[in-house]
Specification:
Layout: E1 2-9, H1 12-24, E2 29-35, H2 43-52, E3 59-64, H3 70-78, E4 85-88, H4 93-102, H5 109-118, H6 127-138
Parallel strand pairs: 1-2, 1-3, 3-4
Helix pairs in contact: 1-4, 2-3
């Protein structure tokens, strides 16, 4: 079985999980870690508690909020030599929607993740330039 773990500073992970559920329903098993809230500052303990609930034979994709941030760094340190755990930083809703909908069907999970993070479909867009392109097209 495969699991999707969303982890962030404060309540971002919970909020994006709720948006994911609203848009996609329950296409996969989603877990949330909200770090540094409710007086808790021990991210390692939160990660260990979550990992203890997931069978050792299951695969996990962990999506974190910020590359170089403490949540991502803590996961990096915790998952060394864990071939069943895949970490993606700088999560956003388009990435998570695509991932959640294809997570259980992907034959090659690392390849799916590489393709997703390289895809322009899930990268941020500067919409003002898109408007400019639309107006330029109208001139013809």
């Amino acid at each position: 079985m495969r699991h999707l773990v969303l982890a962030s500073h404060a309540h971002f992970a919970q909020g994006i999980a709720e948006s994911l559920e609203l848009l996609a329903g329950h296409p996969c098993d989603v877990h949330v870690i909200n770090a540094f809230v409710d007086g808790s500052s021990d991210v390692t303990a939160q990660i260990d508690a979550l990992l203890a609930t997931i069978p050792q034979t299951d695969e996990l994709v962990v999506a974190t909020d910020l590359m170089g941030g403490s949540v991502t760094n803590t996961f990096l340190n915790r998952i060394q030599n864990q071939e069943r755990i895949y970490l993606v930083a700088n999560m956003n809703l388009p990435l998570l929607l695509t991932l959640a909908l294809s997570l259980n069907d992907a034959p090659d999970l690392p390849q799916l993740l590489r393709e997703l993070v390289a895809s322009s479909e899930v990268s941020p867009k500067y919409c003002n330039d898109l408007l400019s392109d639309i107006y330029d097209d109208d001139d013809f």
